[in-house]
Amino acid sequence: MFNHIQNNDFANIVMGRRSVRNYDENFKISKEEMSDMISEASLAPSSANMQPWRVIVVDTPEGKEKLRPLVRFNTLQNDTSSAMLLIFGDTQSYLYAEEIYNTAVEQGKMPAEVRDRQLETILSLFPTLSREMKVEIAKIDSSLFAMQLMLVARAHGYDTNPMAGFEADQLAKAFDVDEERYAPVMVISIGKAKEDGHESVRLEPDKITFWR
């Protein structure tokens, strides 16, 4: 983890992030480094530490050809990026609860009695939630992961573009994952920029903040 970091300047990472649409199509990110970035991004927070984000890395010509008609407003990113990352939220992430909490106890990060209380609550509550609530939780948590992943990518020397313009109702089936269990969140392109992204304007804090 953090073995391939090229930029550790937080201000530069945040202020220099741009949505890049055109990449060096000859540059490929290794599976090892992609896995490192996903691991680093997974330090993001989540409800009860259930970590519902799931990622399909589309980096082969065959995979991109399958994805292309599903991102018809973003084909340049698909055609030139090192990979397209399909971010899903797992509505049954609680199935990993025992593994997560048992590991926390084994590593001395949590007392066993805390684990037992937490697991009792999680395993009695999460399965009973409506699917709509499960999807909402999974999407919120997976969005935190996605934002962290884009900043991690910058630290590794790469650029990204988050996309909502895709065929959400077809994505899971096209890539052979359970449509009922996995909710599509966003698609992120990643690679070495061929063209810089455009600077954009942000609203001032007094336009977006309400003090009470």
Structure overview:
The protein has 212 residues and is of the alpha+beta class. It has a single domain, classed as NADH Oxidase (3-Layer(aba) Sandwich). The chain is 42% helix and 14% strand. It is built from nine helices and four strands; from the N terminus they run ααβααβαααβαβα. The chain has helices at residues 10-15, 31-41, 61-67, 75-80, 97-106, 112-125, 131-155, 168-174, 205-208, and strands at residues 53-58, 83-90, 159-163, 182-191. It has a four-stranded antiparallel β-sheet. Helix 2 (31-41) packs across helix 7 (131-155). The longest helix has 25 residues, at 131-155. It is globular and about 55 Å long. The mean pLDDT is 97.
The helical percent reads 40-55%
Determine the strand fraction and express it as a percent band: 5-15%
**Low-confidence spans:** none
Q: In this structure, how is the largest beta sheet organized?
A: 4 strands, antiparallel
What is the number of domains? 1
Secondary structure tally, helices: 9
Structural class call reads alpha+beta
CATH homology superfamily name: NADH Oxidase
Order of strands side by side in the largest beta sheet?
1-2-4-3
What gyration radius follows from the Cα positions, in whole Å? 19 Å
The H-and-E topology, N to C, reads as: HHEHHEHHHEHEH
> What is the C-level CATH assignment?
Alpha Beta
A few lines on this structure:
The chain is an alpha+beta fold and 212 residues long. 42% of the residues lie in helices and 14% in strands.
